[in-house]
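@channel sequence for tomorrow's demo:
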Amino acid sequence: MTVDHDSNTPPSLQIKAQIEYSIACSELQPGTQLPSVRELATQLGVAPVTVFQAYQRLKEERLIASQSGRGTFVVRKPGIYIEPKQIQHFEVLIDTLIMEAQSLGFNILQLQEQIATHWRVSLQENHKLKVAVIGIFQEPTRSYANDLNRMIGNLAELGVFTIDDIEQDPAERNRLQSFDLLVTFPHYVLKLKQLVGAQVPVTDLHFIPSEHTRTSLAKLVSQTRLLGVAIFPEFLTLLKLGIERFAPHVRHTRYAVLGDPKVKELVRQCQVVVYATGAESVRKLLGGEVQQSFEYRHVPDSAFVEEYLLPLIRSISMRTG
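structure tokens (generated this afternoon):
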């Protein structure tokens, strides 16, 4: 984690944004302990109150939590809780099934195949959930939904919304009441719960940089003059973090917010422009020595979807089917 002391973005916001990004991209796993306020302040060369402010805002968003005498941790995702009595009842059913299978002459492989077949049929026959994917920008959110649709197959029908539309339009909030599950960035979960109410469950979705983004950055030569452009100051910190991670060999890098009057001149001086999602309009300024431009795009983390989101969707489907 770093703090750019020359940036117009307050240090506390830079710290908060980097932790949010690390959680959303599964780099900080649930249960991970964060440095103490004093330790991180010393590491980053900022006042302890700066780190305290960042931690406080993250706690308000319920992304991190402090445990008395132990420290501060990334909040663990609640699993699908099953009562002990339900587990005991389930084990009795399994024992009965095994005895019946043995009496019919089934071996373990035949029993597994029968269970797998009936499991697949059950999933197909259950209620198809309506899942809303809520992002910041319409087109990228639609892309996230398309990626997610390929990962979860036919288990859900996906809708696309933006957080701004939901905040500003009561009709959009009312539309969400017809969905079975809302999926969004980790730091928007609490806001959505406040906007929509407790009637519809809300969960987060984690992301990783796309393969195209990673390989495009890795292929750049070290002498490349690179400009990173974001639409919001807080995005700029995250963009810089990502570029430095996948292109640490590129030494000539500069960064700017899209609305900065100097952007046009900075574009003229660079060879490659990497822009954050939402800053696509910078392409209108391309010309001169610019040889390449591409978006720093994220995609849903398939491991997170498999481990957390799919079991949740199946659980809700079983309850509502």
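heads up for whoever presents: The radius of gyration is 24 Å.
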